[in-house]
User: Which sequence fits this backbone?
């Protein structure tokens, strides 16, 4: 196998753990000697051993003189686990391929420097693009302190999210709605507006398999109009946090906190998206999946605070000038103010198509 193939194997190992390691990055490591794989590993859960540790433990003595392929710069600081670069140096590994440096300014380049000083031959950049994309959430969060935001919309061929009477279930197929759960699984929190809670009474749980870590359910609700009987209040299937404006009284808030609901109160009447995101970042939310409704999506668009858009389009025509569309709010006057995005992927899901697009900022 070539260097490229060994790094591809390391990336594959990392790819399979997306959604499990938050708030840590996903990392894969492959240890090779005489063209034989003698150890491999992935970081499985924050607080557990790092990818390199698993690979080196598997190789044992054979690690001496071996070559390591790792998708992220080995850490050199004491977090919840001892520094990987010290272990790499002690194990006698003589060459290390690092796909990409750690974006964390505190550590970036230091692990590489330490290994070089110990006489290890270090090469950085093999499959760098793929490695950075794999950790786009982690890199964004580390560099901004704000959660990586994915907006999700599900529309008919004519762009409607419901009929003019408000009926919307279902526009997209069961296969597409199941696919949404995969995206929920790879985010730390799911956000909807209070109108969606009132209209759909959603569960907002991650229904991919029973043992996944439940995503936090975040409701934007300026005046705290969430019905106390709503599933997200009563079902205790996942944490529920409600973001409210400064005018909500503390006695009204107590009705919810008494039920175990976390209330995040802004110090402004309304909820500025950026302030709300930095609150969530401080609370350890590194990625946020925004499922609507239209007013909420409209405000994320207006404030330009998102990194990716997932759009499901069902081959159905609904019609009706009064039927709602996916992004509401004031909108723009001139077409050249429209936000341009880059289509990253188009694929068919059952009868529907799914488009993943990335905004072209700046
Ligand atoms: N109406 C449609 C959607 N509608 C989404 C709703 O607004 C609400 O977020 C979900 O129904 C919540 O789901 P749950 O209770 O957690 O299973 N979303 C879709 O992808 N397709 C549609 O057709
Ligand atoms: N997951 C991972 C790394 N993650 C790095 O270490 C930090 C987490 O450290 P800790 O809290 O001790 O797990 C994380 O913020 C990131 O900078 N590094 C690595 O060498 N290999 C790994 O597999
Ligand atoms: Zn490490």
Assistant:
């Amino acid at each position: 196998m070539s260097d490229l193939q060994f790094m591809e194997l390391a990336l594959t190992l990392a790819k399979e753990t997306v959604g499990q390691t938050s708030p840590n990055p996903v990392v894969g490591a492959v240890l090779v000697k005489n063209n034989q794989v003698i150890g491999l590993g992935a970081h499985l859960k924050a607080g557990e051993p790092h990818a390199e540790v698993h690979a080196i433990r598997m190789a044992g003595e054979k690690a001496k003189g071996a070559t390591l392929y790792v998708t992220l710069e080995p850490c050199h600081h004491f977090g919840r686990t001892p520094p990987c670069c010290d272990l790499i140096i002690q194990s006698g590994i003589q060459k290390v391929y690092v796909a990409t440096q750690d974006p964390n300014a505190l550590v970036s380049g230091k692990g590489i420097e330490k290994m070089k000083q110990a006489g290890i031959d270090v090469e950085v950049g093999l499959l760098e693009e793929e490695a950075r994309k794999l950790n786009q959430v982690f890199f964004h969060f580390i560099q901004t302190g704000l959660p990586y935001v994915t907006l999700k919309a599900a529309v008919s061929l004519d762009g409607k999210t419901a009929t003019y009477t408000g009926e919307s279930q279902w526009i997209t197929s069961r296969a597409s709605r199941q696919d949404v759960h995969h995206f929920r699984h790879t985010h730390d929190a799911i956000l909807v507006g209070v109108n969606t809670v009132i209209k759909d009474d959603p569960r907002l749980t991650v229904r991919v398999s029973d043992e996944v870590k439940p995503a936090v359910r975040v409701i934007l609700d300026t005046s705290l109009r969430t019905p106390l009987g709503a599933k997200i209040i009563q079902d205790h299937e996942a944490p529920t946090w409600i973001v409210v404006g400064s005018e909500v009284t503390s006695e009204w808030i107590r009705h919810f906190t008494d039920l175990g609901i976390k209330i995040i109160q802004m110090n402004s009447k309304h909820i500025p998206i950026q302030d709300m995101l930095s609150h969530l970042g401080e609370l350890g939310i590194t990625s946020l999946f925004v499922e609507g409704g239209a007013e909420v999506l409209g405000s994320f668009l207006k404030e330009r605070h998102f990194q990716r858009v997932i759009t499901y389009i069902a081959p159905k025509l609904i019609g009706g000038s009064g039927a709602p569309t996916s992004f509401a709010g004031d909108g723009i006057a001139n077409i050249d103010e429209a936000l341009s995005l880059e289509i990253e992927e188009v694929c068919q899901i059952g009868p529907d198509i799914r488009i993943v697009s990335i905004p072209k900022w700046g």
DSSP finds twelve helices and 14 strands in the chain.
